[in-house]
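Researcher: We plan to redesign the surface later, but first we want a full-length starting point. Tokens attached.
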């Protein structure tokens, strides 16, 4: 498991070292005003409002290194927390 807390204005540009092929869940929550843009593993950007509600993204078959990038939208302020956890595959 990896996790962190960053200022929205600083953003987050993290690379998680994972076990290739394993399943993981990435969670991001922003608290403050405005919204942030989240990109996991080079996928499509997702706008996340800074309303304190966590957003989760499943990574079914992880690469060895998973980039997680969070950038502030114009006028956004507050804090952003993130977590990457290993999950058991669905049976």
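Model: Full-length starting sequence:
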């Amino acid at each position: 498991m990896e996790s962190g807390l960053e200022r929205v204005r600083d953003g987050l540009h993290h690379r998680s070292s994972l076990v290739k092929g394993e399943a993981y869940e990435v969670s991001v929550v922003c608290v403050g005003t405005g919204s942030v843009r989240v990109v996991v593993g080079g996928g499509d950007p997702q706008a996340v409002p800074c309303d304190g509600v966590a957003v989760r993204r499943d990574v079914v078959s992880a690469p060895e290194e998973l980039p997680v990038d969070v950038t502030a939208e114009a006028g956004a302020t507050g804090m952003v927390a993130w977590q990457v956890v290993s999950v058991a595959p669905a049976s």
